[in-house]
Amino acid sequence: MRVIITAGGTGGHIYPALAILNKIKEKESKSEFLYIGTTDRMESEIVPSKGIPYLGIEMKGLDRKHPWKNFKVFTIYLKAIKQAKEAIKDFKPDLVIGVGGYITTPVIYAAKKLGYKTMIHEQNAIPGVSNKILSHYADRILVSFEESKESFPKSKTVYTGNPRSEEITKLKAGDKRDLGFSPSKKLVIIVMGSLGSMTMTQKLKELIPSFASKPYEVLLVTGKNYYQDYQSLKIPKNVKIVSFYDAKYMKSCDLIITRSGASTIAEITALALPSIMVPSPYVTHNHQMKNALALEKLGACKIIAEENFSAKTVLPAIDSILNDEEQRKNMQEALKKIALTDSANRIYQEAKKLVRDEKK
Q: Biggest alpha carbon distance in the chain?
């Protein structure tokens, strides 16, 4: 299978895209790929480092605060379509797959206009504007949440889940001793996205001293942009600060405090990992809150709004979950009921059907 895959901007788009790519490669080892991303976002470093052929195309999102600046964005968009068309004609793919981010729009549009088969994957419970637009140009639409099917044409929409769920279940659990932690103590992971958050950095710096008297240990993942902000702090012995961590340690922890991006939710549900979610209020259409609410209504997580995040709200919430085995068990059972651990394979099957002109 010859596949162009496009996704960019954040790990929430990039890692599901790579999970799809890896599954296709696993099933059809002679497959060839071209990854189209942006010139200046995370994927421009992550994807080439994995030895995957990569094309960077300049692309920007709409500026909703300053609409007059969007003339430049539109110009960039038209140029991106032209570049995407050239790449697609040169590569001659069997299928073009879009997994989210600004770059997906010109690539999927270009592919459809050239007559190539197209597929998009929506990670969030409430679809973004880009995928709503691209639904008109996609031959198949895959969704991570059952309720998302209502937002797209029924005839070409399939519930597959998020492919990160399958990848994370295959990981070997990380050894807590490698982080300097005790194998016998409970571990709490705190992570606010791959880049981190300015607002949450300040709140977490205020929270850290409160862990000194706690019987559990804490791995705080700052994100790429904010690691240096913590260097002047006095860190309790039971807390470790890192800028990035391997997801395998999620399989070794007892509770995670995190944002509620789609890929994170896929990982949490696949692992049946109890969580305290702090939805980012800065994302379009507040989709992280809607993602978290979809879990909370099932009793699968607790939510603390960013504005309410403090030692007074967080510490009791942690104690409540870690010390109440019945509550933890109920959370885990609720997560197991909605978990999909074969999402990447489901997506591969849909891709294969599409390439073979089979109906969904």
A: 63
Rounded Cα distance, 101 and 353, in Å: 25
The per-residue pLDDT for 271 is: 94
**Which tokens belong to 95?**
């299928």
Amino acid letter, residue 55: L
d(CA 200, CA 198): 6
For the chain, give the mean pLDDT. 92
pLDDT value at 283 more than 70:
yes
Which residues on adjacent β-strands are paired with residue 302?
A: 276
Could you count the other beta carbons within 10 Å of the beta carbon of residue 80? 23
Question: Which residues, listed in sequence order, are joined to residue 217 by a DSSP beta bridge?
Answer: 187
Which of 87, 6, 3, 12 has the alpha carbon at shortest distance from 288?
12
Dist CA 56 CA 81 (whole Å) = 13
Q: Where are the alpha helices (DSSP H) in 92-231?
A: 104-113, 129-134, 164-170, 198-207
Gap between the Cα atoms of 112 and 28, Å rounded: 24
| Pair of tokens at residue 11 | 């790990």
Residue 258's φ and ψ, nearest 5 degrees, are -155, 165
- Give the Cα separation of 163 and 161 in Å (integer): 6
Which position has the token pair 């969580």? 275
Fill in the DSSP letter of residue 59.
-
Q: What pLDDT score was predicted for residue 222?
A: 93
Could you count the other beta carbons within 10 Å of the beta carbon of residue 285? 12
The DSSP annotation for 133-159 comes to: HHTTT-SEEEESSGGGGGGS-GGGEEE
3-state helix, strand, coil in the chain (%, to 5): 50, 15, 35
Using alpha carbons, list the distances in angstroms from residue 137 to 57, 96, 254, 265, 298.
20, 11, 43, 27, 34
Q: Which residue blocks in the chain are alpha helix, DSSP H? A: 11-27, 43-49, 70-91, 104-113, 129-134, 164-170, 198-207, 262-271, 287-296, 311-323, 325-338, 343-355
Query: pTM of the predicted model, to two decimals?
Result: 0.79
Position 256 scores a pLDDT of 98
List of E strands, 171-268: 187-191, 217-221, 239-242, 255-258
> How far is the CA of 341 from the CAs of 28, 174, 223, 348, in angstroms?
20, 19, 27, 14
Backbone angles phi, psi at 55, to 5 degrees: -125, 120
